[in-house]
Amino acid sequence: MTTGEAALPRAVELMWGLAQPAGRGPKRALTIDQIVDAAIEVADAEGVAALSMSRVAKQLGFTAMSLYRYVDSKDTLLDLLMDRVVGAPPDIPAGTSWRAGLEQWAFAEFDRIGRHPWWIDIPLARPPMGPNNMAWLEVALGALAGTGVPEPAKLELVMNVSVYVIGKRRMLRDLQTVEGADFASVMARVLDPQRFPAVTAAMSGSAFDGESEVHFDWARADFEFGLARMLDGFEVFIRTFAE
């Protein structure tokens, strides 16, 4: 850091390996990786709301005060989790079309978040700044290389894909927490076809029917359909830069 520069956030220092080594004092008995792993275990079992420095310390068999030698606050811990959970981005082979590349990227993010659905409950106080998140962004922007789209617009396209992914994951998670929510059968009993002809016609097509004899992953199919329509729009937009 040069004179006049603000100090980096502690989470950024930790995620990018820039944290200063400890000075005098007892030998450190924990690592950042161990602390983050324990936090993931707690969140997997009890959700983000259960996360606290004391709860994570208990998971590790330490006191909360001892954790503060490594992680200065719960906010820093959440920043570390935000980056750790997403992990490394997908490997998109060179020569892949921009559309296929973004599709692979979106499905990879959809699946990765699905392993730890509580990730979407982490408050987004600022844009993610960890190396994993930057690697994901690099891959997505790289998929748009050669399209002729201006750099700021590329970033907007990628951000919109990610917002779509996170929104779908949030909806699926929230729907799964509602007990007895048999949407189709309940609505069939109360909807008047004369008053709601379009809704009745749509629902008669079994769009929400999960009782099919053939296994059908409705959630994934719905995600794929919406993503395809989004990319259709991207295609029209990108084509304007090739004309």
Structural description of this entry:
- This protein is mainly alpha-helical and 243 residues long.
- It has 2 domains: 10-85, Homeodomain-like (Arc Repressor Mutant, subunit A); 90-179 and 210-240, Tetracycline Repressor, domain 2.
- It is 58% helix and 0% strand.
- It has 11 helices and no strands.
- The protein has helices spanning 10-15, 32-46, 53-60, 64-67, 74-86, 98-115, 131-143, 151-176, 183-190, 197-203, 218-239.
- Helix 8 packs antiparallel against helix 11.
- The longest helix is centred in the last third of the chain and has 26 residues, at 151-176.
- It is flat and about 75 Å long.
- The mean pLDDT is 89.
Fold blueprint:
Layout: H1 10-15, H2 32-46, H3 53-60, H4 64-67, H5 74-86, H6 98-115, H7 131-143, H8 151-176, H9 183-190, H10 197-203, H11 218-239
Helix pairs in contact: 2-3, 6-7, 6-8, 6-11, 8-11
Averaging pLDDT over every residue, what do you get?
A: 89
What would CATH call the class of the largest domain? Mainly Alpha
Question: Low-confidence parts, pLDDT < 50 over ≥5 residues?
Answer: none
Into which percent range does the helicity of residues fall? 55-70%
Q: First CA to last CA: what distance?
A: 46 Å
- What's the architecture of the largest domain in CATH terms? Orthogonal Bundle
List the secondary-structure elements in sequence, H or E: HHHHHHHHHHH
CATH superfamily of the largest domain: Tetracycline Repressor, domain 2
Q: How much strand content do the residues show?
A: under 5%
Number of domains: 2
Counted by DSSP, the helix tally is 11
What is the makeup of the main sheet? none
Number of strands: 0
User: Which structural category fits the helices and strands?
Assistant: mainly alpha
Under CATH, the topology of the largest domain can be stated as Tetracycline Repressor, domain 2
Which term fits the overall shape?
A: flat
Rg, Å, rounded? 23 Å
Keywords: DNA-binding, Transcription, Transcription regulation
Organism: Nocardia coubleae
GO molecular function: DNA-binding transcription factor activity; transcription cis-regulatory region binding
Pfam family, one: TetR_C_1
